[in-house]
């Protein structure tokens, strides 16, 4: 990863749009297909461009080539790139699957910028790919107040529902793009590495869902190449590529990037796998995750992303330190799914945050019961409405510590359960009273089977204020019940508004939270 230092402050800027040519797939070729391998001639950028983890003065820019080459990036305020700043990036090689990232620094805050990416041949200096372009919006500076808008969802290409051109592909990404958000929060399950695709599925009404299928998506992922292929597959969809080129991402790590409901140390009892050590699979999956998404390569997966004076985003990692899935009723405070270091980091950073709103991206919901078979629990809750036990102990500690420190403006955003809902938590309804009331908003899936609703655990007093769930389990994307959420923060009043939306962008439910009164 290469950096653009502060001396390269921008003065200028891009032509919008990015294209991907056709190529061969097991399930047929079409407009969503990526280019075939080209051993000679000009290099080709195979899967578009992306940006991520944007702050007031920095951003990551990503691409992938069809062969070894040098990544070249231009950045500008202007769409014609006159006077653009040029950056010579890393060499993209086979060791990283020909993917690469550049860290741009010294960017102007609160502005929409244009970037253009090429890859130059290592064999012939000056011979470069056709450029692909994108845009990104930097966060407002610490003292610069303006409106902020972002979208979130999760769960992409799950339960056997892949890219089906006859049904419009992953059109939810077009709907999210049309809202013109500042950034996109993907709340985990960025891919389904454990969800093979078949070429056709008969829907309940007799229609045929025809998947595009690649070799890597025809079986569960086990090898590094197969994990890489999960991310490559999703980018065959033109709606996702166009969205990724125009909207910076914040990506979260969950279970299906590796395998369903995994935890460290697990040994799989699943005949589909020849490698059953989850720790081995997770190393390969994590490498592919870092290679194929615009996420930082250094530091832990949990992180805080500041977004001006009104917003801090806290991205949790609820997998790397997760304890085994059992009944989740233990009393051991040393266990949990955050781990001591992350738990202490979260409490410390929430106390330090000066932002009006502290949005906590929790890829597993707090009060929703998510079983893992008949005798084990996957999530935080376990269905016992009494005093905190098991993984609830960690969140009781976080909520208690922040409440006693006077922290305000905490909002939780999640996906995972494949429906959309608004949950309000209040100590007056809870088995534990030492916390400040808060909201948790659920939205998803983006393109997967729809499920739910799940039962709520009464420990923290959740109330389901709104729920939109399908009539049966694994409802296909063709039948709707795909969801995303939109959050806007008013730059003047600092009020936060949540819109829960369907796949076409229609608003199903809205809630406005006034700016919290800061406690002494």
From TrEMBL:
Boundaries of every Phospholipase D N-terminal domain copy: 47-125
Per UniProt, residues of the PhoD-like phosphatase metallophosphatase domain are 156-499
Q: Name one Pfam family in it.
A: PhoD_N
- Any idea what this protein is called? Alkaline phosphatase D family protein
């Amino acid at each position: 990863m290469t950096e653009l230092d502060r001396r390269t402050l921008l003065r200028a800027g891009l032509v919008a749009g990015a294209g991907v040519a056709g190529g061969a797939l097991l399930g047929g070729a079409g407009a969503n297909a990526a280019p075939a391998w080209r051993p000679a001639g000009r290099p080709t950028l195979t899967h578009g461009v992306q940006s991520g983890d944007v702050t007031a003065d920095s951003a990551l820019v990503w691409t992938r080539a069809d062969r070894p080459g040098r990544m070249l990036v231009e950045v500008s305020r202007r769409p014609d790139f006159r006077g653009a700043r040029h950056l010579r990036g890393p060499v993209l090689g086979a060791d990283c699957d020909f993917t690469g990232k550049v860290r741009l620094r010294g960017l102007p805050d609160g502005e929409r910028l244009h970037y253009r990416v090429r890859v130059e041949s290592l064999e012939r200096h000056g011979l470069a790919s056709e450029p692909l372009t994108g845009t990104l919006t930097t966060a407002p500076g610490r003292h610069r107040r303006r409106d902020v808008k972002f979208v979130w969802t999760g769960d992409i290409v799950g339960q056997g529902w892949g890219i089906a051109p006859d049904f419009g592909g992953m059109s939810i990404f077009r709907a999210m793009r049309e809202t013109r958000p500042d950034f996109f929060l993907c709340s985990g399950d960025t891919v389904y590495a454990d969800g093979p695709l078949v070429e056709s599925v008969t829907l309940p009404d007799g229609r045929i869902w025809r998947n595009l299928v690649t070799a890597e998506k025809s079986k569960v992922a086990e090898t590094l190449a197969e994990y890489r292929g999960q991310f490559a597959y999703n980018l065959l969809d033109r709606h996702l590529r166009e969205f990724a080129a125009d909207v910076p991402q914040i990506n979260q790590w969950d279970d299906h990037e590796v395998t369903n409901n995994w935890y460290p140390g697990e040994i799989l009892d699943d005949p589909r796998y020849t490698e059953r050590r989850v720790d081995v699979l997770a190393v390969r999956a994590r490498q592919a995750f870092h290679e194929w998404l615009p996420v930082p390569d250094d530091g832990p997966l949990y992180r805080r992303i500041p977004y001006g004076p009104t917003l801090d985003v806290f991205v949790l990692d609820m997998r790397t330190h997760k304890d085994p899935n059992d009944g989740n009723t233990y009393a051991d405070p040393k266990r949990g799914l955050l781990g001591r270091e992350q738990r202490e980091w979260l409490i410390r950073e929430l106390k330090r945050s000066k932002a009006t709103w502290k949005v906590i991206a929790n890829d597993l919901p707090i009060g929703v019961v998510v079983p893992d078979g008949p005798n084990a629990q996957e999530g935080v809750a376990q269905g016992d409405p009494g005093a905190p036990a098991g993984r609830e102990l960690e969140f009781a500690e976080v909520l208690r510590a922040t409440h006693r420190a006077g922290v305000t403006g905490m909002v939780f955003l999640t996906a995972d359960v494949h429906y959309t809902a608004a949950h309000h938590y209040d100590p007056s309804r809870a088995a534990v009273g030492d916390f400040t009331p808060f909201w948790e908003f659920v939205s998803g899936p983006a393109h997967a089977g729809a499920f739910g609703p799940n039962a709520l655990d009464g420990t923290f007093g959740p109330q389901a204020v709104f729920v939109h769930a399908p009539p049966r389990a694994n409802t296909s994307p063709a039948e709707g019940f795909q969801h995303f959420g939109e959050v806007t923060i008013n730059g003047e009043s600092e009020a936060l508004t949540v819109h829960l939306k369907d796949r076409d962008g229609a608003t199903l439910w809205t809630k406005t939270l006034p700016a919290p009164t800061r406690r002494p």
